[in-house]
Write a structure and sequence with these properties.
Low-confidence stretches: none
CATH topology of the largest domain: Rossmann fold
Distance between the termini: 51 Å
Largest sheet: 6 strands, parallel
Shape: globular
CATH class of the largest domain: Alpha Beta
Mean pLDDT: 97
CATH architecture of the largest domain: 3-Layer(aba) Sandwich
Structural class: alpha/beta
Length: about 300
């Protein structure tokens, strides 16, 4: 089977995904990656074995960032053969695009040319900060199923407790979630994996946002289940979800970035290859609705 060719687009402030995502496909050059401005990335890549831990059957072949020097560095670090001067130049040369920027206000601008051309796009979290903006992105697809967007933590093993462990909690009635950094870029890391624990809770009946730099969202579902999600801003704290049941509680803390990233990228690869169905937009929109609700305080 012919390997898939992916292009990657970056960089946004504080987000090193072009380095890490491309390396998960291509492997990396240790000397060049050592000077990546995000030291955590070469640290966790060094704990893996390449090419054994790379995603098979696909490669990142093109890169674009808003700075030619940065593009060249990402290309050298993650062994990407082609750096383009205009991101739209990838059209016709790639089978999919990794939009590795988490500044949601730019997502439509970068994704739209590819979606109109029928190219699948993995749009970094969050897809959008409002339902209206998310609907606009979906509306420009050449065909349904081209948009894929999620927090990689949706796939984190740390947030996948066994059925037996969940049964020990009894009926879960309250959920708390915390994440460091800003609501707009990091709340999705809690809200996305949270969805698996509320599927049977029915529709959201109430939301209330409070706070400034530290922001909270209270959520209630029609079953009576309640949750409180907090983005800590500049304060220190874990990226964690805690389930509170009538017989016990379970705190789950995120730790393994590489495996979560790899799992999300593998899912997108499977969709592009035709080995998995397209992502359900309703799953994404449910998260966008809560992100928007959390911004209204």
């Amino acid at each position: 089977m012919k390997p898939l060719r992916f292009g990657i687009i970056g960089l946004s402030d504080g987000n090193g995904h072009p380095y890490s995502w491309a390396a998960i496909f291509n492997g990396y050059d240790p000397a060049a990656m050592a000077t990546c401005p995000f030291p955590v990335i070469p640290a966790y890549l060094a704990e893996r074995s390449f090419p054994a831990d790379a995603i098979a059957g696909a490669a990142v072949t093109h890169v674009w960032t808003q700075d030619a020097a940065v593009s060249a560095h990402v290309a050298a670090a993650a062994r990407i053969p082609t750096a383009v001067t205009d991101f739209a130049d990838m059209i016709g040369h790639v089978d999919g695009v990794l939009l590795a920027r988490d500044d949601a206000e730019t997502h439509y601008y970068y994704a739209a040319p590819f979606l109109r051309a029928g190219v699948p796009v993995f749009i970094d979290k969050p897809l959008a900060l409002s339902v209206l903006d998310a609907e606009l992105i979906y509306s420009v697809q050449d065909r349904q199923g081209l948009v894929f967007s999620c927090s990689a933590l949706k796939y984190a093993a740390e947030f996948l407790p066994t059925a037996e462990r969940l049964a020990e909690l009894g009926t879960v009635k309250y959920i708390t979630g915390t994440t460091p950094k800003k609501w707009d870029t990091y709340a999705v890391h809690v809200l996305d994996p949270l969805q698996r624990f509320v599927r049977a809770a029915g529709r959201v009946t109430h939301t209330a946002a409070t706070g400034g730099q530290t922001r909270h969202l209270e959520i209630r579902w029609e079953s009576g289940l309640e949750a409180r999600v907090t983005a800590l801003g500049d304060l220190a704290g874990p990226l964690a979800i805690t389930l509170h049941g009538d017989r016990g509680w379970l705190e789950m803390r995120f730790q393994d970035s590489f495996t979560a990233f790899r799992s999300s990228l593998q899912h997108f690869t499977d969709i592009v290859r035709g080995d998995a169905p397209p992502q359900d937009p309703a799953e994404v929109m449910a998260v966008v609705e809560l992100i928007e609700a959390g911004r209204t305080a």
